[in-house]
Amino acid sequence: MSLNGADVTQNKDESPTFPYIQESVRNDPFKVPQRYTRSEEVIQKSLFMPQLSSQLPVIDFALLLDRNKDELSKLDIACKEWGFFQVRQVDINALISLQCSYFFQIVNHGVEIDLMQRMKDAAAEFFESPIEKKIKYAMPSGGLEGYGHAPVDWSDRVNLTIYPTRFRQLQFWPEELKDIIEAYSSEIRRVGEQLISSVSLLLGLEEDVLLGLHKELCKGLRANYYPPCNAPENVIGLSSHCDIRTLIVGMQDDTATGTQIRYKGGWIPIKTIPGALLINVGDVIEIWSNGRYKSVEHRVLTNKNKRRITFVSFLYPRDDAEIGPFEHLIDDENPKMYKEITYGEYFGHVRDKKLAGKTHVRATKINEF
Ligand SMILES: O=C(O)CCC(=O)C(=O)O
Ligand SMILES: [Fe+2]
């Protein structure tokens, strides 16, 4: 049975049950259906390295805009060694509670704390509203946009294309989120464009080259909702994956953690500074840079008592953009690692595949053909 495209099944007393995790938890907070239970091997324990997660590089956005050499080289190291970093807003109140070392790493990404909070509040209100209201925006089966759920992961989501505006599918935009999505996305696009320009300089190109190669900078927004789980050690909120885009600008939930990055064969939990934006390198930069910068595997675990909402803004090229490695980054020491492909071909190749660590970018590696 299908209601507005969403998969809906009937249970014994004929009331519909929706395949959304949040609804399942609402109906029975103690139940963890078998299909979400993952093996111990898949779940793999997290490494307890608090000193490492708090060292996630912090980039000073204002200095980056001034093309400050030290900050650019910090960005270079962040992209090379971590693939993940954070940019933060100056917020004196939050600073007071921080360790001293962070005082020297204050950055200013310029996105108003109030705007970020309004995005969080509006999305929380949407997710907490009755299913009958949310289902109006349900992602059709096989579709990519709208209010959906991960098939085997413990999360629901709203997924939307934001830019270029002609690609928008407004029927999937919750009415009450429209204005805030517009305001938030425009700010995040500004931050993303500046970061891509900085990466362009680091790769030895003029600052507008990388953006130009996108043909048009496209942007998607995903709000992830991770309901609490009675057996968090048995489920995964979002399976291990690398993002197939250029650059990803995330806004974490300051009230609960869960996101982890692959580090030396293990997993380390990420804890961002309140007000920070979390940035990660996607496959497209890995390919363009011939592997100098890596898109890092990450995953999300869930919490027993707390729900968690995160926002991920994906920046990526238009389908006809070429994404082969730059010639000047290929030499005897750095042989060409990936083959030329258009972004559309790359996306087509991965869109129907399951989330699975680094398998996607590996498929474009020269020696795997
Ligand atoms: O929720 C998060 O922090 C990460 C989500 C993520 O990796 C994604 O949506 O691709
Ligand atoms: Fe991701």
Automatic annotation (TrEMBL):
Q: Which domain of life is it from?
A: Eukaryota
| Keyword Iron among UniProt keywords | yes
Key word ATP-binding present: no
Keyword tags: Iron, Metal-binding, Oxidoreductase, Vitamin C
Q: Name one Pfam family in it.
A: 2OG-FeII_Oxy
Q: Which residues form the Fe2OG dioxygenase domain?
A: 214-317
What terms describe the molecular function in GO for this protein? L-ascorbic acid binding; metal ion binding; oxidoreductase activity
User: Matching Gene3D superfamilies, A to Z?
Assistant: B-lactam Antibiotic, Isopenicillin N Synthase, Chain
> Member of which family?
Belongs to the iron/ascorbate-dependent oxidoreductase family.
The protein, known as? Fe2OG dioxygenase domain-containing protein
Species name? Pisum sativum (Garden pea)
- Recall the taxonomic lineage recorded for the source organism: Eukaryota, Viridiplantae, Streptophyta, Embryophyta, Tracheophyta
